[in-house]
Amino acid sequence: MQFNARTPAGLTAYLVIASTAAFGSVVAINAADASATGHKPAVAERIPAATPAKAVIPATRPATRLAAKPAKPAQPAKHAQPAKPAQPAKKTYANDLNGWVAQARDLLAQHGDAVPSAGAIEARALTESSGNPRAENHWDGNQALYGGTYGLIQTIRPTFEEWSLPGHKDILNPVDSIIAGVRYANDRYGSFDNIAYGKQGY
Question: What are phi and psi of 103, to 5 degrees?
Fold first, then answer.
């Protein structure tokens, strides 16, 4: 369809169609009245009020509940290691006649031998060697038979070898000499004390 835009009626129809196509609704303008009065319609009259936009309400999501983490299983209590018993301090002995006698008596007791008194051992040691652990006797009959007597308690080598204890095999060691002499006398004379204070050999 064609309209003569030069005629007022044609212009009015053209504006109505154009406005309808652009905005969906239009206010008809009398072109003749507008040209006669010199009145131009306000912008608000020419453009229809915009339809208020509907507020977009975001869809509410159900609150997500965080799954509770399972509790860690209780760790079994660690058993405390029992404290190691304190080791007894190592006993020390003086490096003299009293100390040698004390150590020899302790070793004899540990081995299960009869232990003479300290006084009995000291008396015999003074008689045999005057308390000298390195004393040697090469002048009596034992020299010809056994090569002499040795040590604090003056034993011949075969006797010392027989009656000494493992780990105590030095005939010139005073502790080793006491151990062998005591064990020999306990066996031969019933007790070391029986010969401890005699002046003769044993």
Answer: -65, -45
